[in-house]
Amino acid sequence: MGQTKRQSRKLGWRFVVLAVVVVFLFTAVVRNVWMDVYYIPSESMEPLLLTGDRVLVSRTDFAAGGVKRGDVVVFDGRGSFTPWESGHDPLTDAAIGTGQWLGLVPNHNIYVKRVLGVAGDTVKCCSAGGLLEVNGVPVTESYLYPGDQPSALKFEVTVPQGKLWLMGDHRDVSLDSRSLLGMPGGGLISTSRVIGRPWATVWPLGRIHVLARDAATP
Fold first, then answer.
1. Least confident range of 18-22, 66-70, 75-79
2. Catalytic residue among 42, 58, 113, 163, which?
3. Which of 97, 125, 175, 180 sits between 20 and 30 A of 78, alpha carbons compared?
4. If you average pLDDT over each of 20-24, 116-120, 188-192, which comes out highest?
5. What is the mean pLDDT of residues 35-63?
6. In the chain, how long is the greatest CA-to-CA distance?
7. Whole-prediction pTM value?
8. Could you tell me the residue ranges of all domains in the chain?
9. 113 given a catalytic annotation
10. Other CB atoms within 10 A of residue 100 CB
């Protein structure tokens, strides 16, 4: 009788472990193929996204039509916005990576910005009226943080093939393509580094909502 109970418990624990492994693998596949979750670490995309928001990111939204002007994108900034080396030991990197995967801590290699220029575009700031210009046409940016100007830094750049020019909506505090002018790459981000599009805010509870793909593209 006792032996039967021990075997039953052992089978029960094996079932629990197997279930946990299956759920973990399923979650990993979903997050690598369809949807992932990221922590917003700064105010650079206010008012659209707030510091501490967790956003669900669609990895498939750009598969058919590609990235367009006006799209908000999540991208890997290593080698451009951030250096390749972390400076941490492997154990620390593993612990940080786990927290980032769970959406509990920010991933400082991952950024969220708005696309202001795609291949072939000339992006300039500012026009005589103080607006951003794309291909010589002034752009009215309704998504800008209230009180911000399009850019305090004057620039003009033509975007080559396979690259994007990205800027935050809260221009006064955003680290974006403008910050890397004069650096290798000139602030342009490769389209291959785009992870996906923020699809919905899932945390905090009071901020849960779907983020529509911006139709008012510049």
1. 18-22
2. 113
3. 125
4. 116-120
5. 90
6. 89
7. 0.76
8. 1-33, 36-210
9. yes
10. 18
